[in-house]
Amino acid sequence: QHYYITNNLSVMGSSYDHAITVFSPDGHLFQVEYAQEAVKKGSTAVGLRGDSIVVLGVEKRSVPKLQDERTVRKIHKLDDHVCMAFAGLTADARILVNMARVECQSYRLTVEDPVSMSYIARHIASVKQHFTQRPGLRPFGLSTLIVGFDYDGSAHLFQTDPSGTYHEWKANAIGRSGKTVREFLEKHYTDEIAASDEACIKLTVRALLEVVQSGGKNIELAVMRKGQALEILDTKTVEKLVEETEKERDAEAEAKKKAAGKS
Predict the structure, then answer these.
(1) Which neighbouring-strand residues pair with 172?
(2) pLDDT tens-digit profile of 75-96?
(3) What is the pTM of this model?
């Protein structure tokens, strides 16, 4: 009888593990948590909001020699004033990007105004939540960073996760080592940096260099300034920024050593 009870519990445990719409006894939806694990295995993405600029930076994984790297994109334009980066499953991201683009155009046709940042972030989060509450579906295996400007010129950065929750941030990171990069941003992001476009871009680069070892070739940067279109920085510009950032970082480290030696 004891064996039967134990075996029955293990069967019940596996059913909680497989069913998307069933809570485990301790309140977990395991498929949603597994989707969040898929995000942690994805490339690192960093988003940063300044006073008049928004910046997205992503880690570019190395591609096979004969593959066209233009087909591998982690940063996508949703509308003239909205763009998105993601960490997680690329195929899932393609579907979500298409749905978001359709919603942006539908909103523009219906309201005759560009979509607001809070609206499109809430819409993307609602789509994700829908896929956690219907049988026969599975959660989207990605988190997103959504940046852009509202009609009043204010900059915004939103983050969504596979469960369908969304939050607004000043700076955030998702994907591989996302927690490490987020802690770095918490230490270094200030109002003074937010006031400078150049400082915002360099802080994004510094944050990515916490986890990217091979420099500018494996970093993709997108910048959007108030009233201007999205700009994807070319490789030479990124490598120059990486070089400048590394010099500044080394100078700071040297200054700390000298200060510690004097004390």
Answers:
(1) 47
(2) 999 999 999 999 999 999 999 9
(3) 0.89
